[in-house]
Design brief:
By secondary structure, this protein is an alpha/beta fold. It has two domains: about 35-225 and about 380-390, Rossmann fold (3-Layer(aba) Sandwich), CATH 3.40.50; about 240-380, Glycogen Phosphorylase B (Rossmann fold, 3-Layer(aba) Sandwich). The protein is about 40% helix and about 15% strand. The strands form three sheets. A six-stranded parallel β-sheet has the order 2-1-3-4-7-8. A five-stranded parallel β-sheet has the order 10-9-11-12-13, sandwiched between helices. The longest helix is centred in the first third of the chain and has 34 residues, at about 15-45.
Length: about 400
């Protein structure tokens, strides 16, 4: 208890907290750079050239050639969803319903808690339960596709291979694979998607540079960023209540950044674990987007100031009608017309100036809100994301 107390106390000292953040961030950046260099080199050697969309299409078709894939009209697929619900994941079954019958297996609803210290003792039993649910559903009506939000920490590759033997196409997505990949081995398996990459027909990642990682673990992968769901992520016709808001956990550089903004005269209200406003529900979060003149986000990962990735809120906030301001992550240009549909900042000073400019130009701010929402409703819905991969795998008859 003394060590825990001491650690908690030291984190409250500004200089100690900042030094801890700098050190952790530097270590994460070094490990990420080294891992990425290794994976890129190894993947290029495997295919004698850089892995590309053309290679992906050929290899995926080859992989599914003996699977007897059933092409069906939209609304007629039988989908098995294997996942857990922590926060936002509860929306997944609803986003898949337009494509057909959805059999959702949330192992936490079946009494399995992967957050407990003794989880590893129970994960084989969970896998048996998951496979049993799949086979029961498949017996009633053949399952066409498996959608997983899985990793080696919770799922055995053999479970997925058994599902594939039935003829189902296996997809798995991960939106957090820039750090800790392949990660630690726990009871013989990496705790990241690395351990199941080869058993998945198509791994889906929100980071283009992570694709070689899956290739090196005998898998296929494609860039597949987050999305929003118009029924949930909608604009609320309510008055502005805040100049600037941030929704997310308080850790790393975030409190330092927020405090600096406040010293520069920017009013920022924060919601989430560790902040005075604490955790709020998903429903309230979406209303906060509409209550805010500007929605501030940090694109950085972990404790780093340089490592960035696309976030779910890159799509949820603009779709909800919020004006989106985030770090200048280069990957955002793959999904937005930056400067017209969303805005980005380079540093704290730049961020503060952009906020000031927006607050005195409400017409310009509204133009950006509308443009961002329009782009999301056209290109960045779950409907668009699922359609893309189902058509790629030959599951969905083109409309």
């Amino acid at each position: 208890m003394v060590d825990v107390f001491s650690k908690s106390y030291l984190k409250k000292i500004p200089l100690v907290s900042k030094a801890n953040t700098v050190l952790k961030g530097s270590l994460q950046e070094h490990r990420a750079r080294r891992a990425l260099k290794h994976y890129k080199l190894k993947a290029d050697q495997k295919y004698k050239r850089p892995f590309s969309t053309e290679i992906l299409k050929v290899e995926l078709a080859r992989r599914l050639a003996t699977r007897a894939v059933r092409r069906k009209p939209k609304g007629k697929l039988n989908i098995f969803l294997a996942y857990y619900v922590s926060t936002w994941e509860s929306i997944l079954p609803e986003t898949l319903k337009p494509f057909g019958r959805v059999i959702a297996f949330n192992w936490r609803e079946h009494g399995f808690d992967d957050t407990k210290n003794d989880w590893v003792k129970h994960r084989d039993k969970m896998n048996s339960c998951m496979l049993e649910a799949f086979l029961k559903s498949h017996k009633t009506e053949p399952v066409d596709v498996v959608i997983g939000y899985l990793s080696g920490y919770n799922t055995s590759p053999q479970t997925l291979l058994s599902m594939a033997e039935s003829g189902a196409v296996i997809f798995n997505f991960c939106w957090d694979d820039k750090l800790n990949f392949p990660g630690k081995k726990i009871a013989g398996r990496y705790n990241s998607p690395a351990s199941i990459a080869g058993a998945v027909d198509l791994n889906l990642t929100n980071s283009p540079e992570s694709i070689p990682k899956y290739v090196c673990h005998n898998g296929l992968a494609m860039f597949w960023p987050g999305a929003g769901h118009p029924k949930l992520h909608r604009k609320h016709d309510i008055p502005f209540k805040y100049d600037v808001t941030f929704v997310g956990t308080r850790y790393g550089w975030r409190p330092i950044f927020i405090n600096r903004l406040k010293k520069l005269g920017i009013k920022v209200e924060c919601f989430g674990k560790g902040w005075p406003n604490s955790i709020v529900s998903n429903e309230k979060i979406i209303k906060i987007y509409s209550h805010s003149k500007i929605n501030l986000v940090f694109a950085v990962i972990g404790y780093s100031k340089r490592l960035m990735c696309l976030k779910g809120r890159d799509f949820e906030i603009p779709m909800s009608g919020g004006l989106y301001l985030t770090r200048d992550n280069p990957e955002l240009s793959l999904v937005y017309d930056v400067g017209k549909e969303i805005l980005t900042y380079k540093n704290i000073t730049d961020c503060a100036q952009i906020i000031r400019n927006l607050l005195v130009n409400p017409e310009g701010a509204e133009t950006i809100r509308r443009a961002g929402r329009k782009r999301c409703l056209i290109d960045h819905t779950y409907n668009a994301r699922w359609t893309e991969i189902f058509q790629l795998a030959g599951l969905l008859a083109e409309e």
